[in-house]
């Protein structure tokens, strides 16, 4: 397909791209998808924990995703399956293309919950996906290979307009094959959402040039498998577990990228107050973007703060040493961003999930970069942050210093394992009775208070390891210390789940047992698809008795759940008291 100059590509030629209501009001203001028919739901999505009524979003996403964007995402996933079939065939004739590998992950990432809401962005991604697919098909043929698939994903031609693409996407929704066995569909979707999470981690790692051909091969094989009608429950379950295993490698690569560039995190007290001066707030998960902001804002009287999942970045020694204006942390988890961003007196950059519909009050102060986007919000290039800096200089910033206490971060695997002897001695002399990993996503539901209460109720002779944005339910709690080790250890972002695995593996060696023999329990909160990938990784490691909440995924059928319960004793959270009693006996 000939590359057309879409609105976003056109705007990419300038520093900032703004798309949205001003350009095509009908897409964004109407709640009704172009492709929707009267008797048919406008969309269907159930990939995240906050899905409508625990079943599926059918009119508009609880997250704000419109039916049009949902249809474009469904179409993109379908074209990625076609691209993947071609990539699988390419590998059989020794062709693996880095551009295709990276594109597949970036495109998967863009369909994650709370990442890309801009329909024009999907128009660009769709064109590129089909172009890459067709170029790979041609290369396979000229290398003497063949493609053994009759899937429509391999031959589909894109409609020429955004409106046409939305209509076209209506045929490729998650429920577009009504006659499929529900358990097969459940496993296909578990695999798809796991691959989305893995794609996101792989995309973050690739920014550091940390890549693994085996992982790319798996992502393509996994996506291609969803078009293969001969795949039965057993083979799909094997792919689901392989996704967890391969995701461990993806997280390891990301850890190597982050620690290679910025050093291993060290325990660091992070101020929650403010410093007089112009201000920039960086949210999301991308450390390289944070470094770019710090570089572009230095010596300009600007103070840089982290928000949400960027909090653990304060533990990276290289960032702290190089940038004295990298000061403190502002705010909590993604679901509170509207009221928090509303009060921030400077410019804001979203580097990845989780963006929420911005209020008018700060819409002109917020920028997106990379895979994340919102219609009408300025999307800036990673290599030119001038609009962000100019906005920070234009806005008032903080007029005085304020104190608001500090929190401790920086307990990655190196820092925790540097006190391994104390930990082992503590377990042996019974001053440490148990470890809890209370990690995962935060979210809106009141039932997530379980995690706050759980941490508050953990006994004084236990240690709580935490990671990801779920920690904001309890990150300022003063739990005290055991033998000089803080009882609450912040391991990092959701992207740092590898660190938690490393800690668990080191403990198994120290105690000469397997992970299920350790005094360690996993209390997981999930929301989006990175968390699905991490959960699959924990299962792939053979970890049993994981407690998952606040609700179980809508895409898991009772039969699939039964398999997970029988093999891993995966269970829903109940109440903190009951769960603590069951764990501690
Ligand atoms: Fe609904 Fe979640 Fe899908 Fe958004 S991502 S449409 S909230 S299920
Ligand atoms: Fe959070 Fe979105 Fe999952 Fe990174 S920022 S953990 S939800």
Report on this model:
The protein has about 575 residues and is α/β, with parallel strands linked by helices. The protein contains 21 helices and 17 strands. The strands form four sheets. The chain has a seven-stranded mixed beta sheet with strand order 1-8-7-6-3-4-5. It has a six-stranded parallel beta sheet with strand order 14-11-10-15-16-17. The longest helix has 30 residues, at about 235-260. The structure holds iron/sulfur cluster and FE4-S3 cluster. The site of FE4-S3 cluster has 16 residues, from helix 19.
Poorly predicted segments:
1-15, 20-36
* CATH C-level of the largest domain: Mainly Alpha
CATH fold title of the largest domain = Substrate Binding Domain Of Dnak, Chain:A, Domain 2
Q: How confident is the prediction overall: mean pLDDT? A: 93
Q: Structurally, how many domains make up the residues?
A: 3
Percentage of β-strand residues: 5-15%
The appropriate CATH architecture of the largest domain is Up-down Bundle
Bound molecules: iron/sulfur cluster, FE4-S3 cluster
How many helical elements? Answer: 21
Shape: globular
List the strand order in the largest sheet. 1-8-7-6-3-4-5
N-to-C CA distance: 63 Å
Q: Tell how many strands the DSSP assignment holds.
A: 17
Helices and strands: which structural class?
Answer: alpha/beta
Largest sheet geometry: 7 strands, mixed
What is the alpha-carbon Rg in Å? 23 Å
